[in-house]
Amino acid sequence: MRYDQLPPTPPRLQRDKRYGWLRLYNDFARHPKWRVVSSMTGIPVSQVVAIAAAMLCHANMARPRGSLAEFNVLECGAALDIPSDSAARVYATLEELEWIEQDFITTWFERQPDQEDPTAAERQRRRRQKRKAERVANCPQEASRVTPVTHRDVTLEQTEKRKKEGNASTLSSDVLAESAQGLVNKEVGETQENQAKAELWVMSEGVKITMARCACPKSIAELKIVRWRNEASKNFLVLAQTLAKADTEGIIGDKFQRLVSSEIERYMRETRFGLPLPFGPTIVKRGQE
User: What values do phi and psi take at 181, rounded to 5?
Assistant: First the structure.
């Protein structure tokens, strides 16, 4: 037999899908079929509806779905607390009405198609959006978790706004411009006053800057401020100047944290040893005699 004369390959059988749920339509409980069965058997309509629902649940778990070949009237009667002969009579009457044929629900594929809900993806997307909106409403810190480009634009705009408003809690530009070396020559009272202003600014505006630049909640931002304060030997003027300078750089995340730490280290080094020389030390070699 030639290759082109081989019989066609039978199609592969689709794997039976399993569902832990089934469709129960709005007209199920009020369907006139159950009243017809009740009048034919003398069984209350409520019991007929319960037996029919039990049949649907059994057919949904059967293989193939829709089959009632293994439906047991004794188990059904025991589960619903009704006589088993009532379940048997309802079953036989539904066969007469052709709702059941050859132990299979005739309208199964019409009412219970073996396919997923086409609107499931859209409903799931709306559900995620609703949950995200609820999280943002309950936790304002979630709103700061935005993309770097948008975050940079918003933060820089907020920085310019703070400068224009001249908030009373914001440290003045002349105090921020004071270097760590210059603080040594100030009077004690003036230094303490500036330190108090700087501390107030750091614990308010500085925390806000850290929250925005590091995209972290207020509790984490306060921990970072405490760590930087210790690195600056509790000098809030140095820390305030460093945060204000780093905020104008427009960087976020780890780069922002590294910049703050490096600037604090530079200020403290200049405080201890003074400004660096314009050129490094040179070695003068002695001439040959």
Answer: -70, -35
> In whole angstroms, what is the distance from residue 4 CA to residue 184 CA?
98
Q: How many Cβ atoms sit within 10 Å of the Cβ of residue 6?
A: 8
Look at residue 159 and tell me whether its pLDDT is greater than 60: no
How far apart (Å, rounded) are the C-alpha atoms in residues 69 and 57? 13
Question: CA 202 to CA 175: how far, in whole Å?
Answer: 13
Nearest Cα to Cα of residue 170 among 233, 252, 240: 240
Neighbours of 282 (CB within 10 A): 5
Determine the Cα–Cα distance for residues 115 and 16; give it in Å rounded to an integer.
Answer: 11
SS3 assignment, position 273: helix
Structure-token pair, residue 208 = 């806000």
8 Å CB contact between 270 and 180: yes
Contacts of residue 162, defined as CB under 8 A and 6 or more positions apart, other chains included, come to: 170, 205
Q: Residue 204 class from Cβ within 10 Å (0-12 exposed, 13-18 middle, 19+ buried)? A: middle
Cα–Cα distance measured from residue 226 to residue 217, given in angstroms and rounded to the nearest whole number: 15
Residues in CB range of 222: below 8 A, 6 or more apart: 203, 207
Q: Where are the alpha helices (DSSP H) in the chain?
A: 32-41, 45-61, 73-80, 84-96, 108-111, 120-138, 148-165, 173-176, 188-201, 207-214, 218-231, 236-247, 253-273
Cβ proximity of 106 and 56 under 8 Å: no
Q: Is the peptide bond before 64 cis (omega within 30 degrees of 0)?
A: yes
Q: Residue 47 — pLDDT band, cuts 50, 70, 90?
A: very high
Query: Distance of CA 201 to CAs 135, 213, 225, Å?
Result: 30, 17, 12
- The model carries a pTM of 0.39
The confidence score (pLDDT) of residue 76 equals 93
Residues 124, 117: Cα–Cα separation, whole Å: 11
Q: What is the CA radius of gyration of the chain?
A: 39
DSSP state of 5: G
Which backbone phi and psi does 210 adopt, to 5 degrees? Answer: -65, -40
